[in-house]
Amino acid sequence: MRFVCFIALLWSTSIQAANFDCSLTPPPASQQDKLVWQYTDLLSKSEEQQLNAKLVAFARETSNRLLVIVVDTLCGLPEWDLAFDIGERWGIGKKGFDNGIVLLVKPNGPPGQRKVFIATGYGLEGAIPDLRAKQVVEGYIIPKFKSGDYHAGLDAATTVLMAMAKGEFNEESLGEHPFPWPLLVIGIIIFVAVFWSWKGRVKRYSKTNNVDFWTAMLLLNQMDRRHSGRWGGGGGGSWSGGGGGFGGFGGGSFGGGGAGGSW
User: Fold this and answer.
1) Does residue 167 sit within a domain?
2) What does each C-alpha distance from 95 to 12, 61, 185, 251, 252 come to in angstroms?
3) Fewer beta carbons within 10 angstroms: which end of the chain, N or C?
């Protein structure tokens, strides 16, 4: 009887472990409305369901896909390679929009060998640049993970990533940022170039119409704006992707954007 119980225990443990498939075969279509995948127990069932509901609601609202995947192995790869491969092979994001995010966690191993990585699709690299992803890892995920509060870390990190993807995140909450001097210099150069290209035209208009230089510039600008308003008004189509259903994975592409860390 003891032997039978021992075999049953081993069998149930092996079923629960469900090792991560290093062939990276995507989940069947019937399971692609699931955005939290655990191949080792990190979150409780209720925590997993809560986080999944949050991510599915975000996918429906914005069409962005944010996948949280907890693995028991990195399949012999660096964590960033595995995160990018999952994003590509599973098709996280909408095809043509490449608006997927993969938050990979490998929580087992000795201190310093437990890994986390945020990989962003091509379409979200502008909204979530590498520096911001690194700040999310170091400011929201790792401190909570070190204290053993995995759900709080993932919940906070996904909230910030969702806000970034929607363009609603206030960067000041991630800490101070240097003044963007390079952008200012570029702006000044563009202004000077445009001013010099206009200078001759403004002078001629000023002389012909007997008005001062700055009045001539203002009048010419107003004339150009009226002209562009007549001819340039049609280019802003929109795409409505959220609809009523999440729709599963669509085929996003990942190009190397993201950041990670260890604890």
Assistant:
1) yes
2) 39, 17, 37, 5, 5
3) N
Q: Quote the CA–CA distance of 242 and 60 in Å, as a whole number.
A: 5
Compute the mean pLDDT over every residue in the chain, rounded to the nearest whole number: 79
pLDDT in tens, 189-232: 887 777 777 677 777 766 766 767 777 677 666 655 444 443 33
CATH number (domain holding residue 169) = 3.10.310.50
DSSP string, 68-118: EEE-S--TTS-HHHHHHHHHHHHT-S-TTT--EEEEEEE--SSTT--EEEE
For residue 85, the enclosing domain spans 31-174+250-262
Q: How many domains does the chain have?
A: 1
